[in-house]
Amino acid sequence: MRILLVAVLMLPLAVAPASAGDVYVIDRTRSEAKFEIGYLSSTVAGRLKGISGTINLDLITPTASSVKFSIKVSSVDTGSVELDQLLCSPDFLDTKKFSQITFQSTHIKNTAKTNVYEVAGELTLRGVTKPVKLWVEVGGMVRDGGSLPRAAFVARTTLNRRDYGLNWSKILDHGVLVGNALQVTVNLVASKQTPDVQ
User: Which pTM does this prediction carry?
Assistant: First the structure.
């Protein structure tokens, strides 16, 4: 149980004094963010890659761990070139001006569900920073071929796109064509920076 608690707190990447714990680095090739938003009577879904960050895991006091990660916004992929271009435009994500989505944790708490934790922090999207909570499920810990501990996490949250100035169309956007609730799921895989000393 302690191992699972410790694993959770490694979540999306941390920043703390190096002496406070072990540093885990997010694997850009194995991590991704997914999103869904209502559109008319259906749903628009997509994903983003290019996730980077570090986790500082405090094994003695797990709740002292912290997290920080960023996502490359121009990596958005919905399967439609036209829609990707629209999402990257100034009316929506404006990727030329705002290239990164970032999250910085402020504290981590237990929840009533086993292996699920509440990670509070600040999310910056399209130049706007708001407090958010991520509900993080621990996927488990393994060792890779090089004996480096690796951990997996699934973080979920719901954002109001209007809070971040995400407008579908200045003329047509009245919350009817496109919903306001943006469902976000971030799958993270992170590996310890250096092997354990035997």
Answer: 0.81
- List pLDDT tens digits, range 68-92: 999 999 999 999 999 899 889 887 8
56 sits in the region (left: phi over 0; alpha: psi -120 to 50; else beta) called: beta
7: phi then psi, degrees, rounded to nearest 5: -60, -40
| Domains of the chain in sequence order | 2-192 (2.40.128.110)
pLDDT tens-digit profile of 100-122? 999 999 999 888 888 888 999 99
Closest CA to 37 of 90, 83, 73, 103: 83
CA distance 155 to 164: 20
Name the residue type at position 73: V
| Rounded distance between C-alpha atoms, residue 149 and residue 184, angstroms | 27
Beta strands in 58-148 (DSSP E): 66-72, 100-110, 116-125, 128-143
49-59 burial string, b = 16+ CB within 10 Å, else e?
A: ebbbbbbbbbe
Query: What backbone phi and psi angles, to 5 degrees, belong to 81?
Result: -60, -40
Distances (CA, A) of 1 to 7, 114, 131: 10, 9, 29
